[in-house]
Amino acid sequence: MELLKQRILQDGKVKPGHILKVDSFLNHQMDIPLLDEIGAEFARRFAGVPVSKILTIEASGIGIAAIAARHFGNVPVIFAKKTKSKNLDGDILTAQVTSYTRGTTFDIQVESKFVNPGDHILILDDFLARGQALLGLIQLVQQAGATIAGCGIVIEKGFQDGGELVRRTGVRLESLAVIKEMSDDSLVFAD
Q1: What's this model's pTM, rounded to 2 decimal places?
Q2: Is 35 annotated as a binding residue?
Q3: Would residue 139 be called left, alpha or beta, if left means φ above 0 and alpha means ψ between -120 and 50 degrees?
Q4: What was the pLDDT predicted at 104?
Q5: pLDDT tens-digit profile of 85-104?
Q6: ∠ CA 18-21-23 to the nearest 5 degrees?
Q7: Which domains does the chain have, with CATH numbers?
């Protein structure tokens, strides 16, 4: 997605440790017209694939998923919570995830009543690096016996192993911008 790549080059900041900071338009302050274009692109890429719900993980994926949902006929959006909450009750789907940027391991949780065996779940998130969040979300859908419609990622760090790990599961993965190389002063996108 050329518009996204240009925005990353214009406003993204590379930090030590292969961290790409896109907080001015994607995951802290959100550029709503850009998110709308991202949602439209996911809908184009998954055209013809049944999607009854979108699943993401808090917090950065929520805005992306909510706007994308409009392009899928206003389907519901579910987000996996990263912390135990008194608001979670009943049967809970859980998976363990290790965060690349935080360097911590935690359980993600979704109430099972929101993901049903008849659902076709599209998983969306902002970044894919080591793949742990995405694999955890896939695990939640599988626990529920629902169908995975696919996974959509805004920015994939193609030089890390997450994309390969997810693709090996057989789940369809669509990434809008894949970074092939990243150093302190440059980014190279895959074709």
Answers
A1: 0.94
A2: no
A3: alpha
A4: 84
A5: 767 777 899 999 987 667 78
A6: 160
A7: 2-186 (3.40.50.2020)
